[in-house]
Design goal:
Blueprint (H helix, E strand, L loop, with lengths): L3 E6 L11 E7 L2 E8 L7 H4 L5 H8 L7 H16 L5 H29 L3 H22 L8 E2 L2 E2 L5 H26 L2 H7 L7 H6 L4 H6 L6 H4 L16 H4 L6 H25 L11 H10 L2 E9 L2 E9 L8 E5 L1 H5 L3 H5 L7 H7 L12 E2 L11 H16 L2
Antiparallel strand pairs: 1-2, 2-3, 3-9, 4-5, 6-7, 7-8
């Protein structure tokens, strides 16, 4: 008879890139249940925004996540622009799209390297780290920063595409066309790497829908969901983006770690195509609707209403909702639902019937950003030892907490 016991992984673990704790229920080496608990780095960014105007909140939103900082900025700005009915020039929309795809390249290449590290494929990990440098060089040429680019603002962008940046982008695309295929071939052709990822952390299509998986995690399970296709924003309507799913390339979607790897590396090629088309079709015109920030703030101060912005971040649907109140310069309230907040709910399903040694790989397979999702606890309800809170109860608890904080 197998011995049953529970062990923790994290919050500090050599296989995890951010602090999170997972209590795994084991029978021998097999995982039969799990409870996932973040909470080490919750920062209260949404509450901090109430003391800041929308221009100032841009820099808060950019610091929700280091890897997909621009995705959060654009989701926030689109929510503000929706609430205030604020226009964005077409050239600015193209530049926003360009930076979003550059950020997707960086995020996916970084994740692919980390996935190789999680299975002990260190040579491929180091190759991935070398490859990511090229796109970071382009981002630095455009903005002066390798993370937290400071490119976007209300009604447009702050930096234009110079001839030097255009040349760097062209060289980057040529470099990845020549070099990234070798990385893909090395990993997918290695029988040990494939054995470590295939049929590990499986999430079926039905489970992905039932548990609201998003982004590459959902697409790896065969779900055709990509906001760039379903509800195009910025310049994506001009590029006819299609969701990448494994069955279109290999006949079947397993929904495992290997498929999550495939979807991301295939999206690297897709992003390179979009980057090329952005640069080829970049229109002339202004890059921002209004340069004078005092005039921008005066316009936003008159706005009244709720706006929302949802984009396809590298990890999946990134949703920001903003409420502006006429006469109040500061943001009235702001809600962020990052993709990890949705994907983490599937962790207990992915863990079941897998080996303990695969737990860090399964956690990393959704490309988690713990600082993005620091407002939740995920549990395996089958254990019966955790209270399940209904939506109405959670809403009332949230309102009560807000009332309590505002009285201080």
């Amino acid at each position: 008879m197998e011995k049953k016991y529970t062990i923790p992984i994290g919050p500090v673990h050599v296989g995890l890139k951010e602090p999170i704790t997972a209590w795994l229920d084991l029978e021998g080496e097999k995982i039969v249940g799990a409870t996932v608990r973040p909470g080490a780095i919750h920062r209260g960014i949404e509450f901090m925004a109430r003391d800041r105007n929308p221009i100032q909140v841009i820099y808060l939103s950019e610091r929700i996540c280091g890897i997909c900082s621009f995705a959060h900025v654009i989701a926030f700005l689109r929510a503000v622009e929706d609430a205030a009915e604020y226009p964005v020039p077409v050239r600015a929309q193209y530049i926003r799209t360009l930076v979003l795809e550059l950020e997707r390249l960086h995020s996916h290449i970084l994740w692919a390297g980390v996935a190789c590290y999680s299975i002990g494929f260190d040579s491929a990990f180091h190759l991935g780290m070398v490859l990511r440098e090229k796109v970071m060089d382009v981002l630095e040429a455009l903005s002066g920063n390798r993370v937290n680019y400071g490119v976007a603002t209300v009604g447009g962008v702050r930096w234009d595409i110079t001839p030097e940046v255009a040349k760097a982008v062209k060289e980057m695309v040529k470099y990845y066309r020549a070099e990234f295929g070798a990385f893909y071939d090395i990993v997918t052709a290695d029988p040990i790497a494939k054995a470590r990822m295939r049929n590990v952390g499986v999430l079926t299509a039905d489970e992905a829908v039932r548990y609201n998986a998003v982004g590459p995690t959902a697409r790896a399970s065969g779900i055709r969901c990509d906001i760039r296709e379903m509800s195009p924003y910025e310049a994506y309507a001009d590029f006819n983006v299609k969701a990448i799913v494994p069955q279109d390339y290999y006949g079947k979607a397993y929904g495992d770690v290997f498929d999550r790897f495939l979807v991301r590396v295939l999206e690297v090629q897709q992003s390179l195509n979009i980057v090329e088309r952005v640069m080829e079709g970049l229109p002339e015109g202004e890059i921002v609707h209004e340069k004078n920030l005092n005039k921008v703030l005066a316009t936003l101060k008159k706005a009244e209403g709720t706006g929302w912005g949802v984009i396809e971040a590298p990890r999946g649907d990134d949703t920001h909702i903003v409420h502006l109140k006429a006469g109040d310069e500061n943001v009235n309230w702001w809600k962020v639902r990052a993709p990890t907040y949705a994907n983490a709910v599937s962790w207990p399903l992915m863990f079941r019937n897998n080996e303990l040694a695969d737990a860090p790989l399964i956690i990393n397979s959704i490309d988690p950003c713990i600082s993005c999702m620091e407002r939740m606890l995920v549990t395996d309800a089958a254990n019966g030892d955790k209270k399940v809170v209904t939506r109405a109860e959670l809403l009332e608890m949230s309102r009560e907490k807000t009332r309590r904080l505002m009285q201080k």
